[in-house]
Amino acid sequence: MSNHQKRLSAPNSWPIERKEETFTVKAGAGPHGEAGVPLLIVLRDVLGYVDTRKEARYALDHGSVLVNGKAVSDEARPVGMFDILAFAEREEYYRVFPGEGGRLSLTPIDEEAASSRLGKVAGKTQVAGGDFQYTLHDGTTLVTDEGSYAGGDSLVVDNDTKEVVAHFPYEEGALVTAVAGSHAGEIGTVEEITVTAGSGDNAVDVSQEDGGFETIERYVVVIDENFTGDDE
What we know:
- The chain is mainly beta.
- It is built from 2 helices and 19 strands.
- The strands form 5 sheets. It has a 5-stranded antiparallel β-sheet, with no helix packed on it. A 5-stranded antiparallel β-sheet has the order 12-11-10-13-14, with no helix packed on it.
- Belongs to the eukaryotic ribosomal protein eS4 family.
- Residues 38-102 form the RNA-binding S4 domain.
């Protein structure tokens, strides 16, 4: 199987130039599915910390690059929406956040904010013993005895303990960001949720200071002001 991905056919969320070269690195197995961006692209194309794949491997072998609190050794490891990147030696910390046009971008955060990450609840089931298993937007799972979280809610999970430290319900009045579609990267407040009969997507009206927009439910994620970067 090839280790390369054609730039022109890469997901729109990948922050790469499409026409400079034919190929780029292919994402390895891991969270975020096809939308996951290989860590090499973040290190080389976004941050400019390395120039080659060999340099990236050397840096990762030293355990100085952490994703969601864990050292990463695979330069093809996919990273995606709301992941936390930490560069301990540089004392630099970033949250992966939706940028304009749906491209992933990095929002600088402080060390305290880097201790936890946001996850959108994509699925919920009750398991043996009465606990609840929640599947988050990136495919990871969380088991807890708390059963009040619902699909579309956002949970802030501690990177070390895996405990939920904050809960943002998906409801009218919630602060959200669009992560896909023509309004990707925009932030606003849920004005109205319109439930669509059948299997269609529910519609969401989002208000902003200078207007607003309409999108579909699966394109929005509940956040709070600490996730926008405005607190910097």
